[in-house]
User: What shape does this take?
Amino acid sequence: MSVPYAVELEGVGKRFLRHADRRNTLKERIVRGRSRTTQDFWAVKDVNVQIPQGSVYGLIGHNGSGKSTLLKLITGIYRPTEGRISAQGRVAALIELGAGFHPDMTGRENIRLNGSILGLSKAEIESAMETIIDFSGLRDFIDDPVKHYSSGMYVRLGFSVAVHMKPDVLLVDEVLAVGDEEFQRKCFDHLYTLRRQGRTIVVVSHGLGQLEGLCDEVAWLDHGTVQEIGPATEVIGSYLHQVNTEEAKANADIAATRDDTTMRAGSGTIRSTGVRLVDEAQNPINHTETGTTFGIEVDLHCYEEVLGPNVRLAFQHETGALVTMMSNHRHGFDFGHIDGERMVTALLTDNPLLPGRYRVHIDIFDHTGSVLIDNWDDALEFTVRSPRGEIGQGFVELPYTYEIT
Amino acid sequence: MIRELYRQRALVAAFANRDFATRYRSSVLGWAWSLLQPLATLLVYAAVFSLVFRIQAPPLGSDPERTNFAAFLFTGMVTFNLFSGLLMLSMTQLKSNGELLRKVHFPAWTPILGASMVQLVQVALEIVVLIAMYLFIGNIGITWLLAVPVLIATAFFGQGIGLMLSVVNARYGDVQYIVQVILQALYFLTPILYPLTLVEGTADWLATMVKANPLTWFVETMHQVMYSLVVPQWWVIPGLLVFGFTVFWAGFTIFNRSSEDIGELL
Assistant: This one.
């Protein structure tokens, strides 16, 4: 037996009219008549999506690709211009947390109001009240007007209300980035719990790592149409590939216009003039994978003969943490006297970096290690992806073996 | 329609609670303020119209020898305020709940009716003052009971028009100002500040306009049962009820049909 669908979209399209000069007042409407210069704009078009019951479904795409419009169509805030949408059971949206909160009312009063708006009966709200308060962690402030809440507290309360409404379909739009680390983790745990209970979750997010771990299936939207639908890792992979390709193009354009070596710190007897990520065969690449071999090539221009410089490459993770610092001195490799145009290659075999984005900063010291010659921050930025599509936790894969006795 | 109204009663109550709780939360005298405005108006109008313009109220029901302009005036005012209060408040509700309506899907008329519930409490306070006035001057009668259906009909009438105009106002924000002006004109085209008999002696077109004004029917009936203490002809009150319900039904239907895209409109 096939799994029933919680949400089904058939040939859904939504058109907005863009008025070049909108007639907002009655006077304008009467005096100048109906606006003639309307332009059609299809926010989404020909979308066919089936979301199985009990699955977690992700929507990805660049800004303005129609993800949020699609969510609003599923909740019923927008009506489709064409096509058909059917949703089974209660649909709750975490589109804008705490949208219905009234600043003058207390947290508790707002829970009641918000619960009613989301379609709960009085009894249902009262029975969930304590759980909601506990989940939000705002027990001490629950009888204060929410206008005294911080924005974080506001959102926490909103999230707590929405997820406790026992929705059959929960729509989540970019709200997982709320609250502190602890609360975020709580939110994720709760989403997993909802999923185990067989509830359907539709997530819109730019946090591709989060989505990859959470979603069964992902739809990739591009300018309002579906590019690809399939298992999360596959679709996210091809989406990333496209983003990387576009970015590489954009980066090449930037690099072509950037010549800022004169602005750098250091004595300047050597300047690093170029840097590339390359594969084993020394072909330039824009991303690499965990476990493969890759290299970083640095072009040096020596203005005079320099004795045994130390060329260091600092790897910084997207979170800001320094992952490692490579240095030829520490490696016991002395370049000797160098002059003219040279190229340094750092080769990494069996790349231990886990998936994520990394930046490389280059600095060059003299042979004593105390005089700075050149310093190039943000020289290179690249993505590491996992060959198997899974998400690693942390920065590096340590060499290890397991045993069981 | 009735089933729909019944099913959403909890939500309407929740909005009513919200508006009730927040209406006068940050003012010291709270609900007393809501009575201050109509009472001040009453005082000024009573003084100007009875002392300066020397308008005579009709004889009181309890004692045909006496008249009381203030009681006559306030009876009309309460009725008119019930209508105009619901109308004006309803009209602005979609805008003030726009934030919510753009983000959550729920019947858009629920915050409107919720706000109206609070307005009804205010009217109830005014009616208490009105009754106190009549008790004070000793003009008491069993016909008072007939005021209940008349007020209900008035409320439905005002609410129906309010629902119709609220969607128009959401689209064209200046509608509420136009309506304000029209209401002001209607106020003087309704026998509130003068008895109906006074217009009958004037130009034909003016008398016709006053009599054709539906609010005149409601206000006049209120004058009859509260001030003159007479029972109107048997068909008057059922007629008003049917009229009020019909307008409400039309307003509700029009609202539901035209508010489907309200989330985009706001």
Residues 72 and 78 of chain A are 6 Å apart (CA to CA). Residues 5-241 of chain A form a domain with the Rossmann fold fold (CATH 3.40.50.300).
